[in-house]
C-alpha cells in the first residue's frame, strides 16, 4: 500500500513565526532598511549605485536558481497526494478561468483610468521624430516577432533539462504536471519516489532559507542600481503617468481584490501585511519571481492545499499578471494621447481584445511588460509602436508596481481557487493572519485532505 503524503518524513517548512522575534531581527525590517539605503546611495552617489547592479542581479539569480526545482517538487508532491486526478484538472481549469476574469478586470480599470485622467493630453509628440534605440529597440523587436499564440507554442519544452536550465516556469510546470500524473497512475511503484520528493523538498527549502539571508544585500544593490542609473529626476517628466499607474494599481488591489477577499471573509489588509516580507523583496529587486518560493510556502501555511498552491501560483506567474494588464492598457492609450492618435471606443476595445492574449506567458522575462506592449501595438497598428520610447525612461519604476500588483493578484487567486474547490477554511486563514503563526499539520492529516469551508 502506498504511503500517504503525511507519512513523508519532511515537507517544505512553513515560514517561521515572525511576531515572536524582535523587530530588528525580522527580514522585512532589514529589507526595508536596505531599500532606503539603496535609494540614498543611488541618489547621492550615482556612479557607486550603478556599480552595485551585479549585487542585485546575483541575488535574483540565486533565487531563480531554486524556482524550477521548487515548482517541480511542489507540483509533484501535490499531485502525488490527491485522491483523484480529476481534481488536478479541475483545479487547473478553474485557475485559468479566474485568471482570464482577473485580466479583463485589470485591463478595463486601466482603460477607464487613462480615459478619465488623460495623462498624455498636451504632450503632442511627433511619431516621425521618435527613434527606437538601445534596450527599447531590442524589446520592440522581440515584441514585433511575438505572435498572439506564443504562450501556447512555448508551453512544451524541447527537453525537460532545457526547461530547468532556462528557468522557464511555464515549461517546468507542464513537465511537472505530466510527471506527477504519471507517478500517481503507476500506483505503489511510485511510492518511493513520492517519499524521495518530500525528502528532497525539505533540502531545497533549507537552501532557500540560506539564500534569503542575503535578501537585504540583494535589495540594496538592486535599488541603488535603479536610482543611480535612471535617477529620481527621470520621474518628473512622466510623473502624471507613473502616479496614475500606481494609483490605479492601488485601487485594483484595495477595491477589486479587497472585494474578492471580503467575499471570502478575509481582510485584504491583513493578507497584505502577512506577505509584507515578500512585497518588500519584490519592491527591492523589481522581480516578482524573487518572492515566488516564499509565497507558495506562506499560502500553504494559510491552510491552502498543496496541489492548489503548486498549480495556481506558478501558472499565475504567466497567466495572471494583473499589474502588467493595467500597465498595458494605460501605456497604450497614453501613447495614443501623447502622439495625438485618435482612438474611438471600438478601437480601444480592439486593443483590449489583443491585450487579453499578449499579456499572457511573459512572466519573469526581462522587459516582459515592454515586450508585451510592443507586441500589442505591432499587432493592432493603430498606435505608433515607436511611441514606446516616450515611456521607456520610467518603465523601470513602473515595473516595480507591476510586480507588486502581480504578487497580490496571485495570492488572492490561490485563495479563490481553494474556495471554489470548497477547501478554504476562512477561520483558519484569519487565525493565521492574526497570529502570524501557521497552524501545524495534525498527525495523520493528508496534505490534500479537504478542509470544510466555513460559511
UniProtKB/TrEMBL annotation:
Protein known as: Aerobic C4-dicarboxylate transport protein
Gene3D superfamilies with a match to the protein in the record: Sodium:dicarboxylate symporter
| Matches recorded under InterPro entries | Na-dicarboxylate_symporter, Na-dicarboxylate_symporter_CS, Na:dicarbo_symporter_sf
- Where does this polypeptide localize? Membrane
- Per UniProt, which keywords does this protein have? Membrane, Symport, Transmembrane, Transmembrane helix, Transport
As for membrane topology, the entry says: Multi-pass membrane protein
**Pfam name, any one:** SDF
UniProt main location, coarse: membrane
4Fe-4S: present as a keyword of the record? no
Q: Do the record's keywords include Transmembrane?
A: yes
Disordered: annotated segments: 434-455
Which PROSITE patterns does UniProt cross-reference here?
A: NA_DICARBOXYL_SYMP_2
